[in-house]
Design a protein that fits this description.
CATH superfamily: Aldolase class I
CATH architecture: Alpha-Beta Barrel
Strand order of the largest sheet: 1-2-3-4-5-6-7-8
Number of strands: 8
Structural class: alpha/beta
Shape: globular
Oligomer: single chain
Order of helices and strands: EHEHEHEHHEHHEHHEHEH
Helix content: 40-55%
Bound molecules: phosphoenolpyruvate
């Protein structure tokens, strides 16, 4: 079975002027152990305007810098959009795709993600694909149906040999920004289900792909969730805005 390196990514959402981004990165670096002693790969998902600052501040630190969205097209009549090539030019390592906030507020669709995920990979960006059910869907017993649909669509155009290069974050919508964290059992159950879905494509990819939990992860609850067999890390929103707390979540992966 392949060793899966834990991955902790901080999603700043709509936070961080360039000045704040630079300051944050300096503080985080001072708090993280040397790359060889880190218990997890670490990434920060920053607004477009702070990408360049974060890339410069984190150069040589092995902390990944990710954008929070991109368009699948390289160029064209898409006002306000950013391509994978533009992100690469700024030095981004990856991109978050299909975050539930973009699905809710910006009309992000599974159809668009079907193009975005392979486009990111082909360009050389490492995508984090977000999936997860709403409270109503969970209560109606629809969690598995929702995950099957989102994972199926998001990975549909990704060739089997590239599936393990995608990271999937299971983020139940009812747990995002609410303080209502999923129990460790709920996180394990849903993420094991996502792994089984990937296994429906290839068993090799299912064993290698990294699957994260996201939803109100804090230093206080991180260790229990990260200890679950199928949970390979966390996508952390609000809890990542304090570099000290974020560094403690990284330490909890050890
Ligand atoms: C997120 O932004 O992906 C997230 C999980 O947010 P929070 O940790 O604040 O719930």
């Amino acid at each position: 079975m392949p060793e899966r390196m834990p991955y902790i990514a901080g999603n700043w959402k709509l936070w961080g002027t360039r000045a704040q981004a630079g300051e944050y990165c300096q503080k985080l670096l001072a708090l993280l152990p040397e790359p060889s002693r880190r218990p997890a790969e670490v990434g920060v998902c920053v607004p477009f305007t702070s990408l360049e600052v974060a890339v410069k501040a984190l150069a040589g630190s092995q902390v990944l810098v990710l954008a929070q969205n991109m368009n699948a097209e390289e160029t064209g009549a898409y006002t306000g959009e950013i391509s994978a090539q533009m992100l690469l030019e700024l030095g981004a390592d990856g991109v978050v795709l299909g975050h539930s906030e973009r699905r809710e507020h910006n009309g992000e669709t599974d159809r668009a993600l079907q193009e975005k995920v392979p486009a990111a990979l082909e360009a050389g960006l490492r995508p984090i694909l977000c999936v997860g059910e709403s409270e109503e869907e969970r209560e109606a017993g629809d969690m598995e149906r929702k995950l099957r649909h989102q994972v199926g669509e998001g990975l549909h155009e990704v060739p089997d040999e590239r599936i393990a290069d995608v990271v999937v974050a299971y983020e139940p919508i009812w747990a995002i920004g609410t303080g209502q964290v999923a129990t460790a059992d709920q996180a394990q159950e849903a993420i094991a289900f996502v792994r089984a879905l990937v296994g429906g494509r290839t068993e090799e990819a299912a064993q290698a792909i990294r699957l994260l939990y996201g939803g109100s992860v804090k230093p206080e609850n991180a260790a229990e969730i990260l200890a679950q067999t199928d949970v390979d890390g966390a996508l952390v929103g609000g809890g990542s805005l304090d570099p000290e707390g974020f560094a403690r979540i990284v330490a909890a992966a050890g």
